[in-house]
Amino acid sequence: MFLFRMLSSIRLERGLLVSTLQQTYLIGARSLVIIMICGFFVGMVLSLQSINALQQFGASDQVSLLVGKSLFRELGPVLTALLFAGRAGTSVAAEIGLMKATSQIDAMQLMAIDPVQRIALPRFLAGLISLPLLTAMFNAFAILGAVMFSIGVMGLDPGIFWSKLQTGIYFGKDFMGGVWKSVVFGGLVSLIAVYFGYYAKPTGEGVGTATTRTVVMSSVLVLIFDFIMTSFLI
Amino acid sequence: MAVINSQQQTIKTGSRNNSLKDPIIRIQNVSFRRDDKVILDDVSLEIPRGGIVAIMGPSGVGKTTILRLISGQLAPSSGSIEVNGNVVSAMSRRQLYECRKDIGVLLQNGALFTDLTVFENIATPLREHTRLPEDDIRERVLAKLESVGLLGTEELMPDSLSGGMARRVALARAVILNPKIVLFDEPMTGLDPIAMSTVGQLIRATNDELGLTSVIVTHNVAQMKKLVDYCYIFAAAKLIAEGTPEDLMHSEDPAVDQFMNGRVEGPISFRYHNDDNSKTPKPARP
Predict the structure, then answer these.
(1) Which domains are seen in chain B, by residue range?
(2) A104 touches chain B (CB under 8 A)
């Protein structure tokens, strides 16, 4: 119902576009640093574990294929969504919850301004836009981490690394599968964050509960939806 | 919660300054319950156009609830509320939003938007509900800021304002669209005596200049005497008295006398009572 109310309040107005862009910067661009750092180290640890496992079969030259498929299909969208929920989701829930606690939401309603359209919708749209872009950055930095470890530390042949990656990753199955997941996860996390923030009790405890619920519910639902989507995409 | 032992009849004292022929707000047989608690019990009153009316009573009696019912934030359990000829209690969200364009509200803490400057806060209703060009918006906002004595603060953020300043900015925002009705929820709470007088004078001046009807929820009897034209007093979920401040000050009703003169002893109890006294916990024995 809340999602329906939000989507039905979409109007092609300059105000909504400006707010959405502002929120995309605040929610998305400001999450870049954590996404890049985590992506980099996930790439490194993934290549470390992959080389360690593949060496037993004499197949360590397949590391880029394993890392690439894992990242584009699963780890990229899922880990980015979980990090996004922790960093941006809690921020959105807390911000809206505090607006409620300080009667700003009431003030908007009393000024005949729909707070769902003015506050919740731009943040929801910003999350929907941001997560696929953040996932792409996560994947890029994870590949970079994998390159630095596999080639720079373990001494794998760079030509083999890149050619395996290029020929083994399919656009439809691997890349686009990850994109669809990130769009769905972006909408899911943002919806949960604005929902719990909007319906938070207007107290300090209420805001705290809203942020906790945002992270927990987002994490659980991302993993559930990941399984459901994977079963259709494979 | 108040307990009244005197008669529950509404005491009317004195005569109204304004005619009742064309009330701008009409509350008819309204009851409101929250969970199992009766907040308002079969309340009826009419607020005439023009002038300043106070809604008073002990803390927790439902004064803010009345404002929320008038503005449509809450729906009554029974009865109806008419504002400017429209039955607010039966409106859809869209209709309610349309009706609220004629109602300004000053909430207790001002409720300024913390991510916007003072200028943008006041300009918000103009941007949302009018198609005025930016120059006109700027002119109106600055004029309103000057009228509340805060010209020069337009680029400040709300967190750098004092309580009195924030209240004045909120007042400017509440009247920027020249509404017909302005609702004030305890506008003097938390202010020092000078700020209190300043805000009071502004309310009076704005009301008279723009020809508004102002409804003020307050329990500040001293300010009420200086500011309002007519007053309703609530206790124990009922309207127990109405009249001009002068007449209410001289009322012989024990409950009205207790409230207006701030006496501890009287029919209005400071102890909390719920509807089922058996649930009230008794203190442990030593």
Answers:
(1) 11-275 (3.40.50.300)
(2) yes
